[in-house]
Amino acid sequence: MVRDAIAMTRDFVSNVVWRRRNIGRQGRNLKETMAAAREVMDPKFSSFAIYEHCLPFNVSRAFDEASGSTTP
Length: 72
Known about the structure:
This protein has helices spanning 2-24, 30-45, 51-66. By secondary structure, the protein is mainly alpha-helical.
């Protein structure tokens, strides 16, 4: 069960980072990035207990990091 949880968490984080990098190359802003991330991630991760709570921060932080920001 722990291995499954770690694998699912890794998958989630990888999806957030991958989405931002690819969307960023298209010149989208944060709002567009969030919408595109949700489109792909909601079907897979929306059943996570804290998905709705954490996703905005996660995508926003990945967006900042991909844009070169080193602090939240």
